[in-house]
From TrEMBL, chain A:
UniProt protein name: Sulfurtransferase TusA family protein
Family in the record: Belongs to the sulfur carrier protein TusA family.
Keyword Signal found: no
InterPro entries referenced in this protein's UniProt entry, alphabetically: TusA-like, TusA-like_sf
Keyword annotations of the record: Transferase
GO molecular function: transferase activity
Domain named UPF0033: residues: 6-30
PANTHER family for this protein: SULFUR CARRIER PROTEIN YEDF-RELATED
Gene3D superfamilies: TusA-like domain
Keyword Transferase attached: yes
Pfam families hit by this protein: TusA
SUPFAM superfamilies: SirA-like
TrEMBL record, chain B:
Keywords, comma-separated and alphabetical: Membrane, Transmembrane, Transmembrane helix
TM segment ranges: 20-43
UniProt-listed PANTHER family: CONSERVED WITHIN P. AEROPHILUM, PEROXIREDOXIN FAMILY PROTEIN
One Pfam family in the UniProt entry: DrsE_2
Source taxonomy: Bacteria, Bacillati, Bacillota, Clostridia, Eubacteriales
Name the UniProt record assigns to this protein: Peroxiredoxin family protein
């Protein structure tokens, strides 16, 4: 089980979600992808993305300046 | 099986084309199969930026001169002011790190988004196959309908 860290700070829609897609695609089932994003729309987007693609959103944190998410590849 | 989305890009306005490409890229990232049909003014998005030597009659040449050559040249649907608006928009986009249209097209193609140029509108507007960027397919309404039938989202932009 590997952990993959993705820095998508500064990227705008659809950048972060596409980076997540690529990372998850290359990951193995059971791997965890940590992503940092500054685009405010990402919180809702990552929920929708996980629901659609069947991956699990284990953690989602939002501060004034950044959003961090932990995604488990199924 | 992956689900499908189809988008008809009728408009050649920079902002509208941008919206269509963001949706296409996003849908591909959600695991959907995406097909974009470029028709009428939308075809200008797919024109190569450089001038291509092809045989055209007078009217076709006129159209060719008047229409924007490629994604980089498209104008805004509102507040274009002869191209100044589009330039302003691009400079803001650059500052905010938003992808440019050519980048969105490249990324869509890399994500496997299928792009189809409508051959009937190409004929009407005098756009030749050689003038269209690589990786684009050429087809007509039946291809669109065939894909749309299997899609759960069909957009006309």
């Amino acid at each position: 089980m590997a952990e993959i860290n993705l820095n998508c700070k500064g990227l705008q829609c659809p950048g972060p979600i596409m980076q997540v897609f690529k990372a998850v695609k290359e990951a193995q089932a059971g791997d965890v992808i940590n992503v940092k994003v500054t685009d405010r729309g990402f919180s809702k987007d990552i929920k929708a993305w996980c629901k659609k693609t069947g991956n699990e959103l284990i953690e989602l944190n939002e501060t004034d300046t950044e959003i961090t998410a932990k995604i488990l590849k199924k | 099986m992956a689900d499908k989305k189809t988008i008809i890009v009728f408009s050649g306005d920079m902002d509208k084309v941008m919206a269509s490409l963001i949706i296409a890229n996003g849908a591909a990232a959600m695991g959907s199969e995406v097909t974009m049909f470029f028709t009428f003014w939308g075809l200008n998005t797919l024109r190569k930026a450089q001038k291509i030597k092809v045989k055209k009659d007078f009217m076709e040449k006129m159209f060719g001169w008047m229409m924007p050559r490629g994604a980089e040249k498209l104008g805004l649907s509102k507040m274009n002011f002869g191209g100044i608006g589009a330039k302003m928009m691009k400079s803001i986009m650059k500052k905010k790190n938003v992808n440019t249209l050519p980048e969105l097209i490249e990324s869509a193609q890399m994500m496997g988004v299928k792009m189809i140029a409508c051959t009937m509108s190409m004929d009407v507007m005098g756009i030749k196959e050689e003038e269209i960027i690589d990786g684009v397919e050429f087809a007509g309404v039946a291809s669109y309908l065939g894909e749309a039938d299997e899609a759960n989202v069909n957009l006309f932009i």
